[in-house]
Amino acid sequence: RSGYFDRDENEQNDSNERDNSNENNFDPGRKIIYTSSLRIETIEYEKSISALENLIREYNGFIQDSRVENQTQSGRSFSLRRATYTIRIPSDNRLDFLTASGNVGTIILNQTKGEDVTERFFDSQARLDAFKTQEERLLELLSEAANLSEILNIEDRLTKVRYEIESLSGTISKLSALISLSTVNVEISEVRELTEPEPQTFGEEISKTFKSSINALLNTLRYVTLALIAILPFLTVIFVLVILLIVIIKAARR
Question: Taking the model in full, what pTM does it have?
Fold first, then answer.
C-alpha cells in the first residue's frame, strides 16, 4: 500500500523528502547520522509484522529493540494492537528500506532527521593522531630516561595520554557505528479502519462526508442490534411474567 503524510506534518515531511532525495549529492566525505521515524497503520497486523521483519533481513539490518503486542486489547477503538521497533539499517540501504516500508501498511508519518558530525569526527581523529604521536615520543623518552624521577614523570604523562587515546578512540568508534548504521524507529498500529488523507477538493470533502455518514449509520445500527440482543433475555422473562399475570387475573375474575 502506498503511504501518505499527516496533513499537519506535510511541510516538515516534504522538507525531509527533499533532504533525502539530495543525500546522494552530498560530499561523500561528510559524516551524517540519520534517524528516521515511521508510523504505520494496518488492518492485517500479523502480515504487517511479518513483512517488516522480512524487510529488515532483506536490507541487512537488525532489530535493536522491539515490543510486539499479541493480544487484542478491548477499549482501544483506534488501535487493537501495537508494535514498536528500533531498527539499525546500513545507511546505504536506508532510503530503499524506507521506500519498501510502504508495503508493510499505510504510512501516516515518515520523518527523518540528519545530524552532521563531520567536524566533530575529524576533530576527534586529528586529536587522536596528535596523542598517538605524543605517545610515541614519550616511549622514546622513557627508553632513554636515566633516573627514577624522570621515569615516573614520563610514565605519569604517558598514562594521561593513553587515557585521551582511549577516550577519543571510543568516540570515533561510536560515531562510526552511528554513521554506518542508521536508526529507524517504527510503530505499527492495528486499526479497524485505515486513516484517510485529508480531502484536498470540494468533491473529496463531499465523498468523505458521505462515507462518514454511512459509517456512522452502520455503527448505530450495529450498536442498536447488540443492545437488543443484550436485553432479549430480560424481555423474554418480562413477557412470560406478563402472560402469567394475565392468566392469574383472568382466573381470579372467574
Answer: 0.62
